[in-house]
Structures are given as C-alpha cells and as structure tokens.
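Shift notes (night). Ran MRG domain-containing protein while the centrifuge was going.
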Amino acid sequence: MREAGSWDEWVGVHRLMKDTEANRHRQPVFTKKRDEDKNLKSGHALQMKPRSSNVGRGRKRKNDSLNKETNGLQMENFVNIQIPPPLKKQLVDDCEFITHLGKLVKLPRTPNVDDILEKYCDYRSKKDG
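Came back to this:
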C-alpha cells in the first residue's frame, strides 16, 4: 500500500538543485522537514474514517494527466520521433502484452534492438530519399 501523499511526479530541470557543497548542507534540513510533514499527514490520515468498500474510485482522463505532466516542462525539451506504422503497432502490442497480460519475451530475441533500429534507419533513408 502506498503512503498517503507520496507519488511520482515529472519535474523540470528548473526544480532541481545543483550538486554543490552548500546544497549538500541544506539536504538534512529538507529531509527533516519532509519527514515531519509525512508524520503530520499520516497522523491526520489515521483520524479520518475509512472509506466504505462500495465507493468507486473516479477515472482519470487522458488529457488531465497529460496536462499535469507537461505543465512544468517546456515543450522544447521533448523530441518528436516519427515511428513507422508497423513498428508503432508492434510497440503497442508489446506494451499490451506486458502490462495487461503479464507476458515478457525471453531474451536474446530476434529481431533485437540493433536490427529494429537498422530497419528504421533504412526506412527513413528510403522515405527521405
């Protein structure tokens, strides 16, 4: 079970601190503050009454999650890659097999990454002339 208030989040470079001696001295202060905040939140969570089991959870919309992820990041940090439809279909199928069906391909495998990238480069060179 996940702790209350903990989640992964995409952050931009502007939110990261540089690795300097001064920032290393600040780190224990931030860690202590974070731990105190966790203790306050977890104490508050214990006082809340538990949810009944028949209450459903809301579904997140794709657009909402996309806006939150790209909200703090500049669009210039993204790279637009054009993927040929057969490769795109293969990647989507692989994602479905892994995430929904729990199937992983045994390695080594043919075609491997080098073969796929080589075929992609050939495809792009023929398409671009």
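The helical segments are 21-47, 62-71, 85-101, 113-128. The chain is about 55% helix and 0% strand.
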